[in-house]
Specification:
Hercynine oxygenase, CTDL_fold, three-stranded antiparallel β-sheet, 5 helices, alpha+beta, SUMF_sf
Length: about 260
């Protein structure tokens, strides 16, 4: 029987640096012409702005069914409906867990932290974009061109989930896999307009009563067209909601070395 540490993904170290986050205002109309909708459809990605990110580590792949099953077994919490039981089918062990609410994802992070003595958490949306973009403004983790052979999206014609790590050739500059397509991923961040500021309440675990309680999701999924998998695309969902297209990955903070 595998130990919990054996089920943890590899983590990629991401040094302190600047991410140029979002899409320039002048490009919003171009996005509308290229992908449909109106300029306002993409306005939440603007303005583009610089954000300094402290060093952190991000899981190379999302949390799998096998790892999440350990949390369910020890906690007795609700299992994802798509398992059709309290444990996932053996053939789905290495697939990303889906049908997980934000609250459940955070609770799983807390439990894993105590089990492996590591302060695991969800990444912020700024960290997520830094992991995907690296030190430039690439549109996808591998570059600027959409390529259905590099990700699991609608145009890939797979028609369903892929195991984690199925597209190693599409790794981000820091070696992170699966940041485009396959599943949407929860982040720690509340829905708020740009510019991103970590001290404006959007990273509060318990938001103010008047705050928008929806949390940001990133990455697109297998049922979406390619433009949903762009590094800058933002979606949001209430923390108690879940879908068969949404999972999460782990992160933790690192000490800066300079």
């Amino acid at each position: 029987m595998k130990q919990i540490r054996d089920l943890l993904p590899k983590f990629c170290s991401i040094p302190r640096g600047i991410v140029l986050m979002g899409t320039p205002n002048e490009q919003l109309s171009d996005l509308a012409r290229q992908f449909g909708g109106t300029r306002e459809s993409y306005a939440e990605e603007a303005p583009q702005h610089s954000v300094e990110i402290a060093a952190f580590a991000m899981a190379q792949v999302p949390v799998t069914n096998a790892l999440y099953a350990e949390w369910i077994k020890h906690s007795g919490q609700r299992a994802p409906i798509v398992w059709h039981g309290s444990q996932p089918p053996a053939e789905l062990a290495n697939y990303p867990v889906v049908d997980v609410t934000w609250d459940e994802a955070v609770a799983c992070c807390d439990w894993l932290s105590s089990e492996v003595n590591l302060a695991l958490r969800l990444p912020s949306e700024a960290e997520w974009e830094r992991a995907a973009r690296g030190d430039d403004t690439r549109i996808y983790p591998w570059g600027d061109q959409a390529d259905p052979t590099m990700m699991n999206i609608k145009e890939s014609m797979r028609g369903g989930l892929a195991p984690v790590g199925s597209y190693p050739q599409a790794a981000s500059p820091f070696g992170v896999y699966d940041l485009a397509g396959n599943i949407w991923e929860w982040t720690s961040s509340l829905q708020k307009s740009y510019p991103y500021r970590p001290d404006d309440g959007r990273e509060a675990r318990q938001p103010a009563p008047e705050a928008d309680r929806r949390r940001i999701m990133r990455g697109g999924c297998w049922g979406n067209p390619s433009h949903f998998a762009r590094n800058t695309c933002r979606f949001r969902l209430h923390p108690e909601r879940s879908t068969h297209l949404l999972g999460f990955r782990l992160a933790y903070s690192l000490l800066d070395t300079d």
